[in-house]
Amino acid sequence: DIQMTQSPASLSASLDEIVTITCQASQDIGNWLAWYQQKPGKSPQLLIYGATSLADGVPSRFSGSRSGTQYSLKISRLQVEDTGIYYCLQRYSAPYTFGAGTKLELK
Amino acid sequence: EVQLVESGGGLVQPGRSLKLSCAASGFTFSDYAMAWVRQAPKKGLEWVATIIYDGSSTYYRDSVKGRFTISRDNAKSTLYLQMDSLRSEDTATYYCAGPGIWFAYWGQGTLVTVSS
């Protein structure tokens, strides 16, 4: 099974700060990676797919990148509504695996 | 507008069965793969199963293989998850996700609690 190692587990940042969350895949998964945001009591929301493509309706301050088997989600200017838990997902091969999640809070 | 509405969750004893449904609307259901994803209380997301657009191929995580069956009725635009031999570790909110491979939409989830 492909392991997705997500870091950090939690993060506290200030408004307008740049935030970066990473996922390391245990093997090559190409661009078969997505990022999701989940707010308390709500369903996850797709942010990024194909490692770098912004999902419909997602603010442009979110972006995704890839360097080899390391994937990053960047929030260019943190806003209040960006708090929540972020997950990566590999869709390269079954069983499809999520990262453990990153809890993002405002400082 | 895409909508996915799950139903069928509840409290069930270990070893018993439960069948979840997901009613889809707002897209051509029969054109897309669909999936079930679960989340145990206070835990992360876990992919459970996927079915391709016509139901001819299905995929499962190892821990549910042989116990869970994903299926679909394209005429009714409905996705199902038959869960047999339920265990306490299956306790979770179950989400229907799709359409397609990137889980662009999720239902509100249905809670399954396995307990005696």
Strand content of chain A: over 45%
End-to-end distance of chain A? 36 Å
What is the overall silhouette of chain B?
A: globular
- Spans where pLDDT lies below 50 across 5 or more residues of chain B: none
The geometry of chain A reads as globular
Main sheet specs of chain B: 7 strands, mixed
Descriptive report:
- The complex is a heterodimer of chains A (107) and B (116).
- Chain A starts with a strand and ends with a strand.
- Chain A is built from no helices and 11 strands.
- In chain A, strands 2, 4, 5, 6, 9, 10 and 11 form a 7-stranded mixed β-sheet that branches. In chain A, strands 1-3-8-7 form a 4-stranded antiparallel β-sheet, with no helix packed on it.
- With 107 residues, chain A is mainly β.
- With 116 residues, chain B is mostly beta strands.
- The relative contact order of chain B is 0.32.
- The mean pLDDT of chain B is 98.
- The interface between A and B is medium-sized, with 22 and 19 residues.
Structural descriptors:
heterodimer; A: 107 residues; mainly beta; 50% strand; B: 116 residues
In short:
The complex is a heterodimer of chains A (107) and B (116). Chain A is mainly β and 107 residues long.
